[in-house]
Amino acid sequence: MPTSETMSETSAKKTPVWIDALLLAAELAARQVYWRMPRLRAWVKRRRAGRRRMPQTADREELKKHLRSIGVTEGALVMAHTSISGLRLTAGKGTVGKETVPFSSDENRGSPPANSLLVARQLVDDLLELVGESGTLVMPTHALYQNENQGVCSEDSACPVVYDPTSTPCGVGLANELFWRRKGVQRSLHPYNTLAACGPLAAELLHDNLNDAKPLAHGVHSAYYRFCLHDGLIISVGVPLGPYMTLVHTAEDVRDQDWRIPGFFEEKRYLVRAEGREREWTVRQRRPVYGMFCLCMRKFIRDLLREGILHEDAVGSVRVDWAPAREVFEFLMQRNRLSPYPYYGSWLVKTRK
After folding, report:
1. Domain residues of the chain, as ranges?
2. How far apart are CA 90 and CA 129, in angstroms?
3. From CA 107, how far away is CA 350, in angstroms rounded?
C-alpha cells in the first residue's frame, strides 16, 4: 500500500490539542444550532440543491491501478462507498483513430441519464474485476426510507415499515443500486443500514443478520462486525470516506447493553418480505437524535488521520480514500471503553425512555 502522507494526514497530526478541543466544541455547537433551527436546515437544503458539484475526472485504468495499490486485489474483501455525481472516467490518452470521450454523471438530478448508468456499471464492473472470483465485494444499500434522518416507525406505530430486499430501492447512490440488483449479489435481510455482497464470503457475512434477538444493524450478528473480523478494506470512490463510513457504528452496537449512553437504542418494527413470505420483525437501532446532535464525525476523522488509519487521496481529481476495517473497529473499541466516543454532549438530548 502507498505510504506517502497526504496533506490532510499531516495537518491532523500537527493540530495542537487545544485547537482540536476548540474544533470539537465548534462542531458540537454547530450541530445544536443546525438541528434546532428548521429554517436554517431548509435554507441549507435549498443551497445544496442549487449547487452543482465540481466534476471529478480520472483515467479509468489509472483509477484501477491505484485501487490495486491500496489493496483492492484478487481475493480481497472490500466494502466500497461510491458516488458518481459529477464523475468522469476517460478511456486513456492518445487513442489512435478514436476520439476519447469522457463519460460523465450527475446522479442527483432527476432520472439518471444513459451516461450515469454507464459510469455506474463501469465502476461496479471494475471493482468486481479487481477482487476477482475469489474476492468479495460489499456495498452499502441503505433503504430509501432512511433518508432525511427519518425515525421510520416506532414500536407503537400501527403500521410497520415494509422492506423487501429484492425490490426496496437504496438511497446511497446509483452504483450501489445497480450492484445489489446484479445476478449473484445477496442483500441483507436486516432492514436498517442494509448491505449487499457478492463473492465467496457473502453468505457468511449476511448469515442470521435478522433474528429473534432484536438484532442491531451493526452488532454481533451483522455483516459489518464480521467484515471487521475478516480484515476487510473500506474504500470510497468519488466521495470522502470519513463522513459516510457506516462502520463507525459497529463498536457501539457490539457493546450493546454496555454502551455508555442510557436509552441510546430504541425498538423499530418492520415488515420484511423474503422468499415469498412476510413476517414482522422488531429490531433495535440508534435513536436518530443522537446522530443528529451528538455524533462528531469531524473529530472522528481527524483522529483516524492522526493515527494513520484513514487515508485520503485522489486519482486525477477523483477522491479515493481507504481504511482497514479491523483497525477502525479496534480504535473505536479502545476509545469508547470508558466514554461514548465519538458522541459528545449526550446530556443535551432529551428522549422518551
Report:
1. 7-348
2. 18
3. 37
